[in-house]
Structures are given as structure tokens and as C-alpha cells.
Amino acid sequence: MKLAEGRRRVVIEEVQPQVDGGKYPAKRVIGDVVEVTAAIFGDGHDHVAGRLLYRHESEQDWCQARFEPLTNDLWRARFPVDRIGAWKFTIEAWVDHLDTWAHDLVKRLDAQPDPKEPTAQVVSPQDIPLALRIGANHLEAAAGRAEGIDAKRLTEAAAQLRHLADANLPYYESPMTPELEELAARYPEMSFATRFERELPLWVDRERARFSAWYELFPRSCSMTPGEHGTFKDMESRLPEIAAMGFDVVYMPPIHPIGVQYRKGKNNSVVAEPDDVGSPWAIGGKEGGHTSLHSQLGTLDDFAHLIQATQKHRMEIALDIAFQCSPDHPWVKEHPDWFTIRPDGTIQYAENPPKKYQDIYPLNFESKDWGGLWDALYGVFKFWVDHGVRVFRVDNPHTKALPFWEWCIAELRKTHPEVIFLAEAFTRPHVMYALAKAGYTQGYTYFTWRTRKDELQAYFEEICNPPVSDFFRPNVWPNTPDILHEQLQEKDPARRRAVCQLRAVLAATLSANWGIYGPAFELCEGRAAKPAAGKTGSEEYLDSEKYQLRQWNRKDPISIAPLLTNLNRIRRENRALERNEHLVFHDAPNPQLLCYSKATADKSNVILVVVNLDPGKEQTAWLDLNMDALGLPWKGSFVVEDLLNGKSYTWKDQWNYVALRPSETPAHVFRVVRP
Amino acid sequence: MKLAEGRRRVVIEEVQPQVDGGKYPAKRVIGDVVEVTAAIFGDGHDHVAGRLLYRHESEQDWCQARFEPLTNDLWRARFPVDRIGAWKFTIEAWVDHLDTWAHDLVKRLDAQPDPKEPTAQVVSPQDIPLALRIGANHLEAAAGRAEGIDAKRLTEAAAQLRHLADANLPYYESPMTPELEELAARYPEMSFATRFERELPLWVDRERARFSAWYELFPRSCSMTPGEHGTFKDMESRLPEIAAMGFDVVYMPPIHPIGVQYRKGKNNSVVAEPDDVGSPWAIGGKEGGHTSLHSQLGTLDDFAHLIQATQKHRMEIALDIAFQCSPDHPWVKEHPDWFTIRPDGTIQYAENPPKKYQDIYPLNFESKDWGGLWDALYGVFKFWVDHGVRVFRVDNPHTKALPFWEWCIAELRKTHPEVIFLAEAFTRPHVMYALAKAGYTQGYTYFTWRTRKDELQAYFEEICNPPVSDFFRPNVWPNTPDILHEQLQEKDPARRRAVCQLRAVLAATLSANWGIYGPAFELCEGRAAKPAAGKTGSEEYLDSEKYQLRQWNRKDPISIAPLLTNLNRIRRENRALERNEHLVFHDAPNPQLLCYSKATADKSNVILVVVNLDPGKEQTAWLDLNMDALGLPWKGSFVVEDLLNGKSYTWKDQWNYVALRPSETPAHVFRVVRP
Q1: Residue A7 is nearest to which of B23, B366, B398, comparing CB atoms?
Q2: SS3 A309
Q3: pTM above the 0.90 mark?
Q4: Nearest Cβ partner of A407 from B3, B95, B111?
Q5: How does pLDDT run across A44-58, given as a tens digit for each residue?
Q6: DSSP states of B244-290 as a string?
Q7: A74, A99, A366: which to substitute to probe chain B, counting the most B Cβ within 10 Å?
Q8: pLDDT score of A354
Q9: Helix (H) / strand (E) containing A596
Q10: Cis preceding linkage at A675, omega within 30
Q11: Is pLDDT above 80 for B248?
């Protein structure tokens, strides 16, 4: 059985960006110029041409962009994305007989015997007139596909070719001009064009999806009065400081009523004292569940005021969505079928045998009423979206069914494509990436545990390049309320402060999205619940805010707020740091010095970072710079200006010396000034 | 809008083998055990399980194989392919609650207080009985999915678990056995199983598709009488010698009538003398076209006799199919619409402006009657298949439309899945690979021009590993009637013979499929039409058989027939050389020594080759062997036996010394003898 049309001779392959064969959208951000590459080729020596078709989901008609050849049958086209939401693109390609003819004509003309210098005649006398008649046919056909003035010009050009052919000259100049070829190319013969078999999806987010600085804090710790439960109002008073440090997302742990049954006491003790505040992640009480507020924080009006106050500081609030219930959550009584019931009739609490977490009931995504459960969970997001929240940090999304996320995020985006979802999934790579494919805008990463030069470089090369970077956007955190890395537990305050500083520089410059669990990191809190010593220790904070109120002395001279402020300022002033895709590592022959650069696509802004991974000692090296990545010639002088301290150095060629003393600075963050 | 079933929690990704998302089949050979890998995972901590479904196209029912976990969510299953033709496979995977339960039970039991050594009780008294009841439910459910004795055993096991739970013991031994877990795993709960969205195609060839040694010769040069046109009968007399050298495919250039108009004379001269025999690739004359025989070669009966005679020598004939026509081809008159007509009414001959090939008319795959053309071309293959040919070498397939090949090869294979197609496509990589995807069994390669160590290694690493090796099977040739590589044009006979020898060793051992343009290579013919000197020379043979008869003196002492015989014998006696997928390069710190090994999957046969790429001088090196690739421990002695000369050496550990003198041998071809 034959094809309906067997003359589609062009093949379109290896189309990029493409995530899992188009099953999931590649991700971009508004304002991006999307670069589409593909292998486009046919049989034989005929030239081929292709065009990209693209459109926003709300448009009916395709826009077009022409493909330009790269090398070895690879082609590239570009299109700008000027709206957020879902886009599609596909490709058409065809044999370009006119271009083949024009190319051959040049070779025929070149082979004419020069009348001034007669040699063996390579083309026979009738060859060129015949070629001109063939070209005239092509131009006439193009005229037939054109209209108005274009059709007229093409018809005239065809007539001119015929006229020339009839003239039978002894020697011909080329009758083709670049303008004429360009004009004809706009009306290609597409009867036998191949169309790529899929329309590939693309999701376009707003800019904060790609570039953000998060500050996490517990509103209940925001009271200025020691021992008093903080409120949304108290938190508002913290906003100016956070904004001054340059953060743009203020993220709060869950703000819902907290369960009483099996409530955890201070330092995760299994028995709570009467005045213990409990973990905000044990969600639900008599007052309500995921759409209620913990009454000590404030009312919905207070919450609305907080949202507005945050916006005034050009920041936005991120809510923590943790889909799990305390035994006191209303759903436990209203929808016991959304949980797993054990043979004794009780509800299955969270477990990692033999460990038990009896204060938490996980939801059962294999519930018979999975549809009702999905609706309710969607309803939680919808409720907070309706109350002005546009950024969500989702707790342990990897313990909820992936098809649910795919549905829920798509559903929310139908009306609110601007919503950002950050996945807190510290889990196996495939699962982290599956969440990103399912729709998560950003994801937590392994950065927190990557401390050595080799592992930092390997990890960021993985996550900042395709295929991963097409769907997964890292948001890197040096700490979280759950993770005080062993490196941050350094006893010596000066060294501990140096560690915090170098981790801050790495996070803020390696990744366009970064965040800190704020006060603890800012003030270099290093006390662990059970000090880490190799693998036996704990990454839990001592006196963790997860279980108790904390007062933080932001005036403590150990504070690294000045550096955080500096880093966020540098990020905002240098577009190179807004993206991850032009991250390049440079050789620094010292295992304690990590050197990398980021640049805008046009190299108009280039940042070169050198971090001393050793918090204790001066480290030096002769850097071996990749000058191409810096947009510099391989020979010659240039200036690097350290944006952390304003000092400038004149460097020369690719080899340059650096020395970093932890007591002075954790790093150089250079702007490269072109000569 | 929700899914019909939202509880399919398992994701199946990264399925291999998969060519272009399943658009084209991966290729295997009968007797292969196909290894399928995939990422299989779900949310949370529940265990997952999966099974492979596979079937030959002629079967209705799927066969099954269970997946076993590798690392990091990757899984593997295997199945044997015992029939040639089209196969399909896909995957089902699901959350394995019973396995999760059994795994947790072990942890619960381990956490029991030891009665002999009382400590703090980790599990509470009712925990284990409750867990046993949950397990009993799982086993009963499995029993409900089983039948007969299996159902009975599972029911009994469930009852036993309930009985144990009722006993409320102070300490429990595990009631689960590996046999019981295995039995239960055979009846999994699959209500919410995920099925991979595609059925992936696989094409299974006969063994010669993977492992073959080709000998090309011109039957018209086979006469024993100088100046006389050889016949199929003459060629039969050559078969014993070719078989004795160990070749198994005897390939003849086209055997059809040769055009008279614009016939090329000796050495490609544009004017032929009256007695010039013309190029066999200028197909078609008064006597007929692609389904006719050149009368001087013999009749269809003679051809049938040749086919039989070849089979008696355990070889087979490969025909050359060149879809192009001389101006005298019957199709030119019968189907002028299958060609391109120029404005002056003449048929367009082949051109590479300003070069003209007026003896050749290319077919026009954009003909209005493309359907008729396809049928006719298919008919050519069908005709020769009906006359006993099962191997085709196709001339310049890259200048014919790719959709045609995909259709034509699939159509032929419906009745003759055993047919082998070798693509003579010396063209760009994407096009070579597209032909392989379209169905070509084997393809010519760039081996002919890869002479340096680094380029040989890089090229064979590309073509012998996935993704390329899943669809492209290289057939490597040191020479062809069109290509006498500059290296083979060496003036000094001893050096030239050394070059031919080392190229033969490389071709025969790097690739499971290899071939030579026989007499010229065997006898180290090195005279070029226009000697190659850098880029200005020619790769054409002087007095090429393409345009004239040649007599070959096979008794010439320069002949490398003994080496060819040796190489083909070694290939047949060592299964390691039957495949490409276990090719590993070893470090030899000398740019003139190329060292590599091939091994069977179980390492029962391991061949280690060291080739001296320098035809002039002795080269030595301390090899740095990858002992894992050789199936050897990193420390200890082992024996390597040179299969070319029978000498054995005892080597030790990974570093071993070799010295190769071109005057003695071009290479070591060692069999590794395990200690």
C-alpha cells in the first residue's frame, strides 16, 4: 500500500527543543527568542528550504520564520515569545528547485569560456540559454503563487530570462540578483512539502519563573516581643529589610491551623508541652484545613494586607502547599475514604518502618474517590490564587501521584498561566525531573549537598544544559529549615561565616533562581539537633523553628546580610545572571577554586566568578580562561571589575592569576569589560 | 477535564531500544537476546514492578518478561528473538503494594525487641499483627487473580498470616519465603497499571545481516582467455578460490544490457572505441533494462546455475541495483514521464554543473506517475528475488527519494523478510542514517577514508554504539571500484602490500560486516587514473574495470590472499568478531598503534587486536589494557595467542609490551586465554 503522496522527499529530524518526543512542553520565559534547530535534508543534491510555524494557543493562525542552514544538514530558526501560556510549533520543509537552479547557474556561468581569454569551452553553446529557460519556468511558477507587485516583478524577471535565452549571447552575465532570489524564496513551491509529524508544545512563563531570589521565614517568629506568637502584621514589619536585601519572593511555611493530636514538641520531641506551637506542616484542626488560616497569625483580611504590603516592596508572597493532614483535619472525618484505612479501621499515618509519624495522615491517591480528592486539592490552590497568591512552594510533591500534578497545574494555568510552582522534591533524579515535566516551574536541587568542585561542576553542567534545562529550572538553596548541611555546622564562627558566604555566592551566581531559609542563614546559625560527624549526625537545626518560636537578632555582627544585599544587587544589574544557559566552567588548576562565567547571548554582559571553596585558607591559581565564553579575543588585555568590592584589574590573554583570602572575601564576582 | 483513570501512578520513560521515538524499528538478528531498558518509577516510596510485552507480528498474543531493577529507577528485561521479521514490544508497570508491604515487614520484624535482649520497644505490640492482616489481604487478593494450585497456596498463606496475627506473639519470625513472594508476584494487582504509550517496532534479520564478508568482482573479467568477455560460467570457475578465502557474499556490478549512446571508453574517456565494453552502470539497451541480462554474460538459465553454484560453496550472490538509465533504456521511450524533460523537449541527463554525465538519465521521483515508477522499481527487485537473489547492493540510494525506499523495502519484506539490502551511500551522515532507518540492512561507511588512529577510534565508537548501532549496520570496505584511497596508491610495492594488509585487518576485525573490491585489493593494485597527491589527485583506478575488461594474475606473489583467508577463518572461529557492540578501544601510547578488543557478551571469547598503522616502520608500545573489557582480573597472568601466526605469549596485569614490524606482520590478532 503506497502513501497518498510519495513525493515528499524531505526529512525533518532531531527537532529541538523537544521534551520526550513532544509529550511535555519545553519551557521558556516571556521575551525569550526561542531557537529551534532541526536536521532537514532530502535525497540527492537538490537544495532544501524550511520554515517554522509557531503560534500562541489563543491564536488560530500560524506565524512563520524561515530556517537558515548551519552545518551538516542542521538548520535553525528563531521566534520571539511575547505572551505567557502555551505555544506550539512545527516545521515544514521542501525541495527548493529554484535555489538549486540558481546555484547551478552560477557554476554554469563560471564555466563559460572567458571571451577575453579563450580556452576549451566547458559548457556547450546551448547550455546556458536552456538553463535560463528552466529558470524562467521556475520564476513564472513563483509569480503564480504571488500576488500584486511581487507577482508582477517575478513575471517580469521570467520574461527577462527568456529574452536573454533568445538572445543566444556568446557570454552571459548572471541575470539573478540577491533581491530577486529573496523575492522568489518568499513564494516557494510547496506541493510536496514535508510537515513534521508533531506540533511540539512550549510553555512560556513570566520572568520570575527563570529569575528569582527567595527568602523563607516563619511569620510566627516575627514578633518583636520574645515568646509571643508572631502575626502577619509582625511579618509586614520585616518586609522592608527583606526587600532591602534584594529578595523578591517571601516564602512562608504553611499558615493553616495546626493539629493537636500527636503534636510534636520542641526539637521534634514526640510529646508536646501544652504551650508548644507544633509543626506548621501538621495541617488541620478544629478551625479548618488547607483553606483556613491559623488564627494566631491573623485573618484573611490581614493576609490580604500582607499580600499588598509585599507587592508594595516589589516582592511577592509564596505559600507552602503541603498535601497532608493532621488527625484533626476536617477531611479526616468528612472524607475518610481519601486516606488509607487499616484492617483495624484506623487511618494509616505516615511511616518509614519502623519510624512512625503519627501526627501526619498521608492522602491516598488510589482512593475510589480520587476524582473528589483531586477536586479538593485543586480547590486549595484555587482558593489561595483567588486570595492573591501567585507563587506556591509545594511540599514533598514526589509523594503525590504524578498524573494529579499534571492535571492540577494544567487546570490552574488555564485561567492563571502566571502562577509559579516550586517543587520541594529532594528525591531521585527521575522523579525530580518527572515533576518538572508534569508542570512544575522550578525545582529544589541537590546543590545543598554538592560541596566539592568536581561535583558542583558536574551537577550544574547537567542541569544547565539540554535536555534537562529544557524542562527543569533549578532553584538552589544553601539551607532549608530541614537541612543544615554538615558544612554549615562548622564550630568556628569565622569559618562558619566564610562557609555561609561562599555558599551564598555559589547559589546566587550559579543559578538564576536561588533562595535561603532566611534568618538562620543570614545569621550563620550552625547548631544542629545532633551534630553531624560524618554520616551519623543530623541535618536538623537545634531549636528548629519547625517546632518552636524563635527570636533572631538581625543586628548580630556575624550577619552576612551585606553580602546577600550585594549579591542580589549584582544579579539585578547584570543580565548575564538572569539565565543559566550560558554557564561555562573555566579551568583553575586548584581543587579549591571554582571558576565559571555567565554571559548574555550577545556577550554584552559577561560575569566571571571565582569562588574559594576553602573557608579556612588563602587559595591561589593561574586561571585558564575560555576567552570565547567571555566574548574576548584570545590575545590582548581586558579589565575585570570585582562587583563585590569595586576593584578593577587589568588582565591579559587567557592565563591570569587570582588569590582569595577567606578573611577578606569568599569570591571574586567580576564583570568583564571588553577592551 | 480529568483522566478516565487518575490512579495510574507509575511513569515509564527512556525506553531503549527506540529509534526516533519508535518511528523506525531498532534492528536485531535472529538468535539475539534483546535487552530492553526503561526508567520505571512512581511517586512516594511504594515499590513498583513491570513487565515487558513482546510479540512477532504474526502472533496475536503478547509474550511476557519480567523487569529487574538496575540502579536509579532503571530497569531491564530481556527476550529472545527466534524468528526473522517484524516484532513489537511495549511495557506495563504498576505499584507493587505486596512487595512494598513485604519489604516494610522485614523492617518491622527487625525492629522487634529481641526477647533474649530486651531493649526499648520500637514497634508497639499491635503493629506486627496489624501488618500481618494487611499482608493477608494482599495475598488473598493475589489468590483471587490466580487459579488452581496457585490460588490454593496463596489462600493458605493468607490464612496462615491471619492465624499468626490472631496468636499475638511476643516475637515474630518472618512468615514470608522467597517462594511465596515469587508466587504472589506472578499475580500482581494491575488495575492501575500504566502501559507505555507506544508499541515499539523491532526488525529481526537473518544472521548474515550482521556478519558477512563480501567479495566484489566483475564477471566480464573472469574469462581465462585474455581479451575475451567473461561469462557467468567463467565466474563459476572463480567461486572455489573465493570460497577458499572465506568470503560468503559474491557481489557483481550490474549485469544488464549496457547503453550505446554516450558510452564511456577506457579510463572514462568521453568517446568510446567500437570495441569498448562500457560501464555496467549505464543500464539499458535494445535488449532491455533492469530485468534483462547483458547477453555476453549469459542467459537466465546460466544465471540460475551461477546462483546454485554459489550456494554449493556456502556463499550467495549479491546483485547491484542501480536505478538509473542509459539513453537506450526501454523506459526512456516507454515512460519519458519518469524522467525530467527540459524546455527543449530533451531528457535531462545527470549533471554536476559544469560536469555532464550524458550516458546516464536519472529518474525523476517527482514524476506525476511516481506510483507507476515505484511499482516498476519494486518490480526490478521482485524479478531478481524471484530468480533467487536474496542480497542486493544498491547503487547511490541517497539520490532516490527516501519515502520510496521505506515503502519498497517494507513491501519486499512482506513476502521475503530474509532479503538483505546494502546501501552504497557515500554521503552526509544524516542521509546515510536516514537510509538505514528507511530499512537498509547495512550501509557503506567512511572507513575507506579514515586512516589515522584518532579518526578510526572516534568513527567506530560512533557507529558501534547506540543510538547509531540500533539502526545502522556498517559494512566497511578498504576499496571499491570507485575508490582507490591515496594510501593504497603507495608506490613502493612492499609498503603498498603492507598498507593493504593493515587495512584488511582493520576492516575484518573492527566491523562484523566487511568487503573488498576483490582482485584489485587482493593483488594490491595501486595505479590511479591520476595519481593522488594531496587533494588534487584522483581515487579512480587506472584502467578501471568499470570501463574495460581486466585480466588478473592471482598467482602474483604480491597477493594478500593468504592474509584474507586467515582473517576470514579467524572471524568464523571467534564469535567475538560476529558483532560490533562489544568493541572497546585500549590505550596504546603510540599514535601508530591502534588497539581494540571485541568479546562475546559472556566474555567466553575475547579477541584483542593491535594494528600497526605505519606501513614502513616498526612500532612499539606498552599497551594499557582495560582488563574488564577482556574479562580478566586486573592483577595476574594470562595468555594471548596470535591467531595470525599461532604464537602465544604470557602477559601480566594491564601493562604489556608489543612490537610490530610491517615486514613481518601488520598486526596481532590475539585470542585472550583466561588463566
Answers
A1: B366
A2: helix
A3: yes
A4: B3
A5: 999 999 999 999 999
A6: HTT--EEEE---S-B--TT---GGG-SS--TT----TTSB-BTTBST
A7: A366
A8: 86
A9: strand A593-599
A10: no
A11: yes
Residue B11 is placed in which grid cell? 511513569
Torsion angle of C-alpha atoms A452, A453, A456, A462, degrees rounded to 10: -130
- With a CB-CB cutoff of 8 Å, which residues 154-193 of chain B face chain A? 192
Amino acid at A470: D
List the beta bridge partners of residue A35: A78
Cell output for B14: 527512556
| Average of per-residue pLDDT across B306-328 | 98
pLDDT of residue A170: 87
The pLDDT of residue A674: 84
| CA–CA separation, B674 and B605 (whole Å) | 9
Mean pLDDT rounded to a whole number for chain A: 96
How far does the CA of residue B383 sit from the closest CA of chain A (Å)? Answer: 19
Residues A74 and A39: their CA atoms lie apart, in Å, by: 4
Interface probe for A, chosen from B2, B114, B367 (most Cβ of A below 10 Å), is B2
Which 8-state DSSP code applies to residue B397?
Answer: G
Dihedral (Cα; A28, A24, A397, B49), 10-degree rounding: -150
pLDDT at B530 over 90: no
Does A104 sit within 8 Å of B45, measured CB to CB?
no
Nearest to B430 by CA among B20, B9, B139, B65: B20
C-alpha–C-alpha distance, residues A579 and A354, integer Å: 44
Residue with more model confidence, A378 or A123: A378
Cβ–Cβ under 8 Å, residues A674 and A600: no
Q: Does A418 touch chain B (CB under 8 A)?
A: no
Report the distance separating Cα B573 and Cα B579, nearest Å.
13
Confidence at residue B117, expressed as pLDDT on a 0 to 100 scale: 63
Give the pLDDT band of residue B656 (cuts 50, 70, 90).
very high
pLDDT of residue A382: 98
∠A642-A647-A650 over CA atoms, to 5°?
85
Q: What are phi and psi of B534, to 5 degrees?
A: 70, -135
For chain B, give the number of residues. Answer: 675
Question: Would you call B353 and A434 a contact, using CB atoms and an 8 Å cutoff?
Answer: no
CB pairs under 8 A between A and B: 161
Please identify every residue of B annotated as catalytic. 395, 424
Of B72, B137, B371, nearest to A343 by CB-CB distance is B137
Per the DSSP assignment, residues forming a β-bridge with B321 are: B394
Q: Is the pLDDT at B112 greater than 90, yes or no?
A: no
Question: Above 90 in pLDDT, residue B534?
Answer: no
DSSP H or E segment with residue B11: strand B10-16
Q: Note the pLDDT of residue B478.
A: 98
What digits encode the pLDDT tens for the residues B157-175?
999 999 999 998 888 999 9
Average pLDDT over residues A175-202: 96
Please tell me which residue of chain A has the smallest CA distance to B102. A353
Q: Which residue of chain B is at minimal alpha-carbon distance from A8?
A: B403
Nearest to A20 among B7, B13, B343 (CB): B13
Share the mean pLDDT of chain B.
96
User: A11, B402: Cβ pair inside 8 Å?
Assistant: yes
A424 given a catalytic annotation = yes
State the cell numbers at B328: 537506450
Residues of B in contact with A337 (CB under 8 A): none
Kind and range of the H or E run holding A571? helix A561-573
